[in-house]
Amino acid sequence: MHEICEQIAAEEHLRLRIARIYSELSPEVLQRKVAEGRTIALPPAGKLTRETIDGCEHIVGLMGHEPIAQALKAGANVVLAGRCTDAALIAALPLLRGMPPGPTWHAGKTAECGGLCTTRNDWGGVLVSIDQGGFEVEPLDDLAACTPRSVAAHMLYENADPFRIREPAGWLDVTDATYTALDDRRVRVEGSRFDADAYTIKLEGSAVVGYQTVSIVGIRDDAVVARIDEWLTSLEAFLTNRIQTVLGLDTSQYDIVLTPYGHNAVLGDLDNDPRPAREIGVVFSATAADQETATNIAKFANPYLLHHPLPDMGYLPSWSFSSSPAEMERGKVYAFVLQHAVEVDTPMELFRLDLAT
Amino acid sequence: MTGNRTLGTLADQIRSKNAGPFWVTIDIFLRTDEDYQLAAAENVLTPELIAGRYKVPATMIQIFRVPKLRVIKISYPRREPQGSIHDRDMHAAHQFMPLLSVPVPLQP
Fold first, then answer.
1. ipTM metric
2. pLDDT digit string (tens) for B51-72?
3. I need a surface site. Which of A178, A307, A321, B99 has the fewest CB within 10 A?
4. How do B4-6 and B103-105 pair as beta strands?
5. Range of the domain at A96
């Protein structure tokens, strides 16, 4: 990213000061926070442990507006920031210029997804104008409009709580916010509050779950489609048993999942729709500590995915693999594992700012 | 008018999405104040009903009723964090589906 910026600057004959702010955190820094008891578990997570930190491949902290504001203040024309809170990116400059935090953070959150707070939510950006008493928002696209409803509704988006959002320095609270139409495309918002709280940095961390190999097999046979749960259960039981016997692996060493697309792949046991499927694509995935083991399991499962019958079938059926070879190696797969924050002494404590002169 | 409608036919829009990798949030938008009053009645979307449909503890379910927007918002922890081997819906895009068939009495 930095090289791209420098290249564009050179091509356009621009003299730019480019700031880089790094948000990746070392495990050692976080181990120290654990030792000092300065970590906070966010629901539904349990206490942060050393093991969880060691299991992470990457950990970032979500910076607030301060590192970005510091870069701007130091004369940066371009700021390349790592992970920061969605609203901090927009809030940095107005806060640096002394705008009040309630309206500023609310404006930042509102503009964070561009046109999503307008009536044409797939299109264009928005302009937010912040003053001492509130902020105004209008779409950049002539065909879009901001309405009190479209702007207020954006607080729902990807937030568990529609009224209160945690930022590093405290809480944005829009419980008492009012949304007023200025005309048919501009909205004024007043009454947003920012309540200061202990300064914390939220963490994001992912861990390698394992290496995965998948195969896809299609089933169009009415009898099996009608009894797909029975077919899947018997196949999984058979494979689990044979993987132990033939490959010598017990279930603590691998994980197999049969996901029936067309039946209930998306919702699983939450699916309450009784309608039958017409055809089903079963995605078989094997996950293990290394790719070779995952692929061995998938190759071992191959003939059974191809031929597994219902118990009362008097013949050996065949099912439809989507490719040959059927096995697709997916490499590492990751899951999010951190739902925690840490206390810091200063907003910059965990972040490094590089500003070329 | 008496009888029931389903939430899926009454609502203007129902959507679900991750609220971070550990939570799901569902937004139910109603067309009119009358429809909102019906769907937002305390006995329609109860924590117990939601707990049953999503197999999560009722105590962990948050329900927000926002009359100004004619919106009911429901948030609950994911059973599997995003990306886990058993996660079937990485962005929780379809998790609103089990609510479509919830009966809404037409007389509050």
1. 0.91
2. 999 999 999 999 999 999 999 9
3. A307
4. antiparallel
5. 86-197
